[in-house]
Amino acid sequence: MKAIRLFWISLFLFTPVHFLPAQTLTYTVELLGMHTGDMVLNKFSTGQGVSRFTMHTSADVNYLFGRITASFDSDIRYKDGRIYFAQAKNVRNGEKGRFSELRCSASGCEVETNRGKATLRTNPSWCIARLFFEEPTKETEVYSEDWGQILTLKKIGAGRYQVNIPGDKPNEYRYESGRMVELITHTSIGKARVLLKR
């Protein structure tokens, strides 16, 4: 028993990465004009070039033809401004849906999704979770942890950006004073809004 306690104490003391307190953003999710869930994002940093973003979204929608419960979770890790690991999973009505996992090394990045495997030419510097914490004023592409691929990002107005979604309408991100305050996205049953809780 003493050996187990010593193991855990030494693991904690000698772990090389200690994250500072998280910066947390909370959003409300609206679908068909009704509150259907929440989104919580965290940004952790060591101050030594290592950072991590996490996102959890949950929604429960009752509509004319039934009910949908859905969740989305992602975990993205950065070193020196570049992503070296990212994973995401979608669950809908208890069944696993889209998922992705990205692992980068000196030789490139490998992505595995529910659609297969792919290679990225370089470690991405922006991901979707990062868009919630910073306005992408000079970026033209973003790694989608949900889709497991690089997507086009373009400015469409003052504080407004679009991310092109494969086979769907683009998502729109709106910023005020550099903070993401509204996301408009599209679902199988209608347009959804994700609004910053103030």
Structural topology:
Blueprint lengths: L1 H13 L8 E9 L2 E12 L4 E14 L2 E14 L2 E11 L2 E11 L2 E6 L2 E5 L7 H4 L9 E4 L4 E9 L2 E4 L7 E6 L2 E9 L2 E7 L2
Antiparallel strand pairs: 1-2, 1-14, 2-3, 3-4, 4-5, 5-6, 6-7, 7-8, 9-10, 10-11, 11-12, 12-13, 13-14
Give the key terms.
mainly beta
How would you sum up this structure, described in words?
The chain has helices spanning 2-14, 128-131; strands at 23-31, 34-45, 50-63, 66-79, 82-92, 95-105, 108-113, 116-120, 141-144, 149-157, 160-163, 171-176, 179-187, 190-196. Strands 8-7-6-5-4-3-2-1-14-13-12-11-10-9 form a 14-stranded antiparallel β-sheet. The chain has 2 helices and 14 strands. Strand 4 and strand 5 form a beta hairpin. It is mainly beta and 198 residues long. The N and C termini lie far apart (47 Å). The chain has one domain (19-196).
